[in-house]
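does this look right to u?? L-homoserine version
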Amino acid sequence: MKKNIRIGLFGFGAVGQGLYDVLKKSEGLSASIEKICIKDPTKSRKLPSKYFTTEANEVLEDKSIDLIVELIDDAEAAYTIIKKALILGKSVVSANKKLLAYHQKELIQLQNEYGGSLLYEASSCGGIPIIRTLEEYYDNESLRQISGIFNGSSNYILSQISQKNVGYAAALAEAQEKGFAESDPTLDVGGYDTKYKLCILANHSFGLIVQPEEIFHAGIAHISSLDFKLAKQRKQHIKLVAHGYKLPNHRVALWVLPELIGADHPLYAVEEENNAVVVEGAFSDKQLFLGKGAGGHPTGSAVLSDISATTYDYKYGYKKLNFGTSKKLDNNLAIEVYLRYNSPKVLEHLPFLEVADEEAGRVIGTTTLEALLNAKQVLENDKAFIASTGKISPVKQQKVLTQFRKRVGVH
Ligand code: HSE
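got this back:
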């Protein structure tokens, strides 16, 4: 049965204020924000000062507050808050993808042990209700792949550059102004934010929990006009795409890379701050979920839905995690990439199985996720831009190493 809910809110930034607006207009939900814990008491706020405190315990230990809504961008501070709230038996709604990516296993255990609910629909793909869809709708269907555009800021920047000829720095500044970007936008354009969301969705799609460091990711920070020119020649768009791809024997490959995609691809026309998730089920085949991936109101709407779900004691069942055989991450996947590098030394660190096209400063060829992960720092130091062409296949590691030795002349 539905009950009235008294909320202790942490953070009053773009999403916190979005939630405040959304809650005010919600017709069916009886919920009130009782206290808001903020970091900076000197900032001017649109609510009276009686709502605000800088003391976390004042909110956490208030027995009249039954739900903690955590919307701050500091993952470590959020970890302390959520852990304490769960241990106190309170339910928690969070939008903090980084915190969840790193600590989901422990937080799920705490939730089970102390009885509160931990819900986080807003952590992944803004207003798209993907987590509950995976948990409830696809609970008994094995998924072949989940992929998509999970970062609104990067997609906004790519759209502004390719569709409206805006420069990279100006497009990023716009994404920040509109409240899409993280306080540290490196997390958006560097592909980290997308990877955190992939970690969360890998749990709900495949029952696989991994640490972010185990996954290869690259972002759009080093993209240049040369890359857009190539995409145009190929009649393709560049999108920052996350993939979770099921391999034989209960293994799953996960990666985040800009991707060159053609007009027949479901993500081709996803523009601005929109996100999209393509779910490929064993029986349902491909389904596309599309919607606003960032911004106060769309994200606030996902938080609202979680708040509402706590009123009927909803908890994620972690059905894929709890049923069936345990899954393993496998980076042994061959992937064709377009690599534009600054120093040819990069090639000494990145083995290729096959090279389809090569000219000074760039190569299109097949490597593996494992090899990319090993070369991550070298690629980053070089400020190289790397994008997938979308061609993938399982591979035997030995073959890559042999090819690598041949290529760089090691015997
Ligand atoms: N910075 C994130 C994005 C916010 O741009 O997608 C939503 O998680």
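Residues 97-114 form the longest helix (18 residues). idk if thats expected tbh
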